[in-house]
Specification:
386 residues; Rossmann fold; six-stranded parallel sheet; six-stranded mixed sheet; alpha/beta
């Protein structure tokens, strides 16, 4: 029996009981007109349950207070709450390792009735695909991956565009012609950023070279700081990172060097060292997917946003950056937005001299997804691993 029929039966039963009580009273009341039955029916309709809010959950690799990657995603979650109010109920789990723990957390969130789950780190790709098969009525959205399934979509941002602009700034500001990059894992996402950073620097300063230190983690402030210091000791005077805390920027400030914010505005963290921040706005993506699930229009697809959509941008460029460089940056920003410029356009060679992209050829997404090399100007070899 449906909930509405149950409520209607209870309403009729209550009406009958009330009539019996009135009949037993000392004072005789006039018989009720036929229309008197309407209030019971109306009460039954009024008692119909309101539509349940959509339950959406986020799984985070780091703490929401990391000031970087996870912080940016959580700002996007809050944007969903602000947009949809009581039509949505959000929750999150932070500091979830990219391991079997991720599977456990995903199963738990799906079992709790969440119908849309965002998995916000590349290493969650396999756990997402696996658990999605067990919960076909739940929609999963995976950040920065590439695998799709009937109930799994992928969303990403073109961070390398920001890295290129940061490279332009770094190339102009370096005095040693040595730049440093703290990398997390040698995956295409990170390699794109390293290479774009080098290409941007060389566009301003052909002598610029990039040294890389890998930390094999997304969030470990002490380890990130140690890597930054080792780069500084090796002569790097401007640093960028693809890790999730502000440790690299803070280390640069202590050493009297320059660095950038990553994923969010970190200008207040180390104002003397801060040259600019590479920020990402996840709110538009999250609001899009939540609305699609609510409207039953969601579909499995991979979307990569960029400067054109306003999802990622470089902000708070420091006053110390030369005006002529800022003008060139404005030109690049405009070209990225209108699509007339792409960071990865040939000729591009790797650091062994091998051609990787022919002259006048613009890389497609498939090419970008398979980057497994350093461009010319980046020193060393890519380590094997994740």
């Amino acid at each position: 029996m449906s909930q509405i029929n149950k409520r209607a039966l209870l309403g009729l039963t209550a009406a009958a009981a009330l009539a019996a009580l009135v009949g037993c009273g000392k004072k005789e009341e006039p018989a009720a007109a036929p229309a008197a039955a309407a209030p019971a029916a109306a009460a039954s309709v009024a008692a119909a349950p309101a539509a349940e809010p959509l339950k959406a959950a986020w799984v985070y690799i780091g703490p929401v207070g990391d000031a970087g990657w996870t912080f940016a995603h959580d700002q996007g979650r809050k944007a969903v709450e602000a947009e949809f109010g009581d039509k949505v109920k959000t929750t999150f789990v932070e500091k979830v390792p990219e391991s079997a723990d991720a599977e456990r957390v995903l199963r738990d969130l799906a079992s709790q009735g969440n119908k849309l789950i965002f998995t916000t780190s590349f290493g969650y790709m396999e756990p997402t695909i696996k658990v999605a098969q067990e919960f076909p009525d739940v929609k999963f959205m995976h950040a920065t991956g590439y695998k799709l399934a009937p109930n799994v979509g992928v969303y990403d941002a073109s961070f390398y565009q920001d890295a290129y602009i940061s490279g332009m700034i770094a190339g102009a500001m370096t005095k040693t012609n040595t730049l440093g990059f703290v990398g997390s894992f040698p995956i295409p996402e990170v390699l794109r950023n390293i290479n774009a950073f080098a290409l941007g620097a060389q566009a301003i300063n052909p002598k610029a070279k990039v040294k890389v230190v890998w930390v094999s983690t997304w969030f470990d402030p002490p380890k990130e700081a140690e890597a930054a210091q080792s780069l500084i000791n090796a002569g790097a005077d401007v640093l960028l990172q693809n890790t999730d805390s502000s440790a690299v920027l803070q280390t640069a400030e202590k050493a009297g060097k320059y660095a950038f914010g990553w994923d969010s505005d970190m200008s207040a963290v180390a104002p003397k060292a801060h040259l600019a921040s590479n920020v990402v706005h996840w709110g538009p993506a999250y609001k899009k997917y939540v609305k699609e699930v609510m409207d039953n229009t969601w579909k499995s697809e991979r979307i990569v946003w960029g400067a054109k959509e306003g999802v990622n941008e470089v902000v708070k460029i420091a006053d110390v950056v030369p005006e002529e460089v800022k003008k060139k940056i404005d030109e690049v920003k405009a070209a990225l937005k209108d699509g007339s410029f792409d960071v990865f356009k040939g000729p591009i060679a790797d650091n062994t001299g091998k051609e990787r992209l022919p002259k006048d050829t613009t890389a497609d997404q498939a090419w970008k997804d398979k980057i497994d090399f350093y461009v010319a100007g980046v020193e060393g070899k890519i380590p094997s691993g994740k």
